[in-house]
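Weekly structure sync, notes
Attendees: PL (lead), two postdocs, one rotation student
Agenda item 3: pending single-chain targets
PL asked that the sequence for the first pending target be pasted directly into the notes so everyone works from the same version. It is reproduced below exactly as submitted, 170 residues in total.
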Amino acid sequence: APAVFDFEKLKWMNHKYISLLDSEKIYNTAQSIGVNFGNKPKEWWLEFIELMKDHFDTLKDIENLSSQIFTPYELKEEIVNELRDPQIKSLLATFKEKLEALTTFNKDTILDTIKQIGKELKIKGKALYFPLRLAITMSEQGIEVHEYVYFIGKEEAISRLNKVLEVLDA
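Predicted structure, written out during the meeting:
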């Protein structure tokens, strides 16, 4: 019988291979095949690749995942409407305050902050993470919210939360 080409198996094998490579090798190989690295410095990309490589099936996934971060932020009425709840508003305001006070800003401290807020406000799971994702990304899907916050930066995350909170206050 003729061989059957299994594209899903190929993606799986590629994913395994990519996850074993170091970030520098992934960066150089991706650059050689034309992955667009935009105007961020190489060091930023190396860190992005290191933290996100477990999400890559192909090197083009670097562009696909990072494009979420570089998409201009615009408030979307249908998403803001999903956030119109006093408990969610309290969650967003608390997260903004804790972010402002955060002295060590990395994906682990951001995740710890979210978990701490969850305990304080007695919110778990989707009720905790989903409103934060919506407010900060204006999207229902994408990379983990604490990773997203890390990659857009503290000031941008706070700015986005302020925009949402202003609309919710209006």
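Discussion points:
- The chain has a mean pLDDT of 93.
- Residues 1 and 24 are 41 Å apart (CA to CA).
Action: rotation student to compare against the earlier draft before next sync.
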